[in-house]
């Protein structure tokens, strides 16, 4: 307890000595750390996290200040994690060699010549109550793969049901996404599973996917992100590895379908508090 009080007192003195121009950082820091349960082992923990927090605040401010982006970044529960820490906790490289070949499914129904011309201009399965919380559903009969790197085929699949996809989600811009149509810098090395639950287009003409993440409602736009639709591999590789569950039984319930999609993603959000000791 004495050590805790010493650290808090020392940090308070440090913050007082910071120039007035850094006041916004101090206020945000105090607000954030006031509700954070820290493991106090190691007297440098709080100082290290504050330094990371301050760097992230400056990054977010600089990114938003550019003013020409279709999206906005914001502070969230990952504000005290460096990008290296964030990647280590919340992403994992996909080992997907041979996956499509082993399944032996057909994709002819999704690769028709008409492309996306006859599809609805916008789809949002949330409005149809087809997107629910994750439930323990058990195994499904199989999965049908969407042709890789084919935006039209992916749109066709999403027009019928939510579709599970893999993306590269470990970038700083993705880490602090808040709202808008995301078009930030990211690669195509898949490391995270999500679900596309719709698509649409803004009044400015920006086409996007509606993507459901698994990091809780306190990330992104209530747990969702709108990602810019592009051809080829897609933004963050979203067009590379898409599939949806197949049931032999007729007329499965909407809750059942969504549970199978979440099961197929095969990953759960891991809490930073559990892993904090590994990244100090």
UniProtKB/TrEMBL annotation:
Organism the protein comes from: Stephania yunnanensis
Keywords: Disulfide bond, Signal
Protein family per UniProt: Belongs to the peptidase C1 family.
BP GO terms, sorted: proteolysis
Record-given protein name: Uncharacterized protein
Database matches in InterPro entries: Papain-like_cys_pep_sf, Pept_asp_AS, Pept_his_AS, Peptidase_C1A, Peptidase_C1A_C, Peptidase_C1A_papain-like, Prot_inhib_I29
Region called Disordered, residue ranges: 100-122
Domain Peptidase C1A papain C-terminal: 119-246
Pfam families xref list: Inhibitor_I29 (PF08246), Peptidase_C1 (PF00112)
The organism's taxonomic lineage, starting at the top: Eukaryota, Viridiplantae, Streptophyta, Embryophyta, Tracheophyta
CDD domains per the UniProt record, alphabetical: Peptidase_C1A
Matching SUPFAM superfamilies: Cysteine proteinases (SSF54001)
GO MF annotation terms: cysteine-type peptidase activity
Signal peptide coordinates: 1-22
SMART domains: Inhibitor_I29, Pept_C1
Annotated Polar residues bias: 105-120
Cathepsin propeptide inhibitor domain segment(s): 29-86
